[in-house]
Write a structure and sequence with these properties.
single chain; alpha/beta; Aspartate Aminotransferase, domain 2; Aspartate Aminotransferase, domain 1; seven-stranded mixed sheet; three-stranded antiparallel sheet; 9 helices
């Protein structure tokens, strides 16, 4: 049944899961203080990089004993750096339940191939059985499945007296979900996620246990220059003071500083959590009253509050071939984008066909509410077109 086209569009129609929407009130003029045209090794550049590390510690509440580094190649580079530098000292378990964590399975099981590697993989929408993890081994996992909308609810399943290291890809969780640093030895994320920074820069956070591993273990494979965190068997302290391994964009650094200062101005980490939770609640309320859509995450306790993934459950659509389901979802998204009422909210290419709405802290709840009205309209339009074609 056709419904009337909504009268109002989101003030900010950007719902991409990465790069994510800029913070409310962002303007290019906010970056006027960037140390452009200066060396990142000069005092002007180094001070900006050190400030980014110090503000990260403050806003993210990173314990004093953990080290923080800015590294190349976004979250992917940070995870790869950790895997290549740390694993192989003991067995390693890796869990995956979506696209990017599946990449870490490939890296470990098929590329690096350390002795005693095991993988635990669950389908989209579910977590693997984490009770099977052997914490005498190292453990690699994503806190939040960016392409499935499934997260671990907490770190209670990780024992405090573990013998292995925990390596956590937290890129769509950091600044939106509480991270238990006491249970995490390596934490990685990228600037372009929850705080809406610019791409290509990653963060690597190491516990004292991870530092000890770096200083007492040499992996059996060659390490590319951009992965090397030690010199002569000791941690390269400069990397954790802003002396980046390769040249960073100081414009991107300034943008990250702007995002961190915005986070402080609205109340810090708790305010960021609250904004993401409120945004996800708008989607949950809409899904509860909308019969054709449902969460991909089957267990409400594991549903993400950032990359919220939804699947079309109307039997008229869900019983068709995957190709037909993909085409229908793309038609729905295209109708909304044509009206400039929402951009980049289709499901990830490997995920079940549907929607993925970014609900991180830089998005406004009122904009998500407006988007849902356009989704209802677009669904009715797309289904009417399907009926006519039949």
């Amino acid at each position: 049944m056709a419904i009337a086209k909504p009268g109002a569009r989101p003030a900010n129609p950007r719902f991409s899961s990465g790069p994510c929407s800029k913070r409310p009130g962002w303007a290019l003029e906010n970056l006027a203080g960037a140390a452009l045209g200066r060396s990142h090794r000069a005092q002007a550049g180094k001070s900006k990089l050190k400030q980014a590390i110090d503000l990260t510690r403050e806003v993210l509440r990173v314990p004093a004993g953990h080290r923080i580094a800015i590294v190349p190649a976004s979250d992917t580079g940070a995870v790869e750096m950790a895997l290549w530098s740390l694993i192989g000292a003991r067995g390693v378990d890796v869990a995956a339940w979506e696209s990017f964590s599946s990449d870490w399975v490939t890296d470990i099981v098929k590329q690096l191939k350390p002795e005693g590697a095991r993988s635990f993989v669950a389908p989209f929408g579910e977590l693997p059985d984490l009770s099977q993890i052997d914490f005498d081994n190292d453990f690699v996992f994503a806190w939040n499945g960016t392409t499935s909308g499934v997260r671990v609810p907490n770190a209670d399943f990780i024992p405090a007296d573990r013998k292995g290291l925990t390596i956590c890809d937290a890129t769509s969780a950091a600044f939106a979900q509480p991270l238990d640093f006491a249970k995490l030895d390596v934490v990685t994320y990228s600037w372009q996620k929850v705080l809406g920074g610019e791409a290509a820069h990653g963060m690597l956070i190491l516990s004292p246990r991870a530092v000890e591993r770096l200083e007492t273990y040499t992996p059996p494979w060659p390490l590319p220059k951009i992965f090397r965190l030690t010199k002569k068997g000791k941690l390269n302290e400069g990397v954790f003071e802003g002396e980046t391994i390769n040249t960073p964009s100081l414009l991107c650094v300034e943008d990250y500083l702007d995002a961190l200062n915005w986070a402080k101005s609205i109340g810090g980490l708790d305010a960021l959590f609250a904004r993401a939770d409120a945004n996800a609640r708008v989607v949950a309320d809409w899904a509860a009253r909308t019969p054709w859509i449902d969460f991909l995450a089957k267990d409400p306790a594991t549903r993400s509050n950032t990359g919220v993934c939804l699947t079309i459950v109307d039997p008229a659509i869900s019983t068709q071939s995957r190709e037909a389901q993909v085409a229908f979802a793309k038609t729905l998204v295209a109708l909304v984008e044509k009206e400039q009422a929402g951009f980049d909210f289709g499901s990830y290419r490997d995920a079940p066909p549907g929607l993925r709405i970014w609900c991180g802290a830089t998005v406004e709840a009122s904009d998500i509410a407006a988007l849902t009205e356009w989704l209802d309209w677009a669904y009715a339009e797309a289904k009417a077109g399907l009926v006519q074609a039949a």
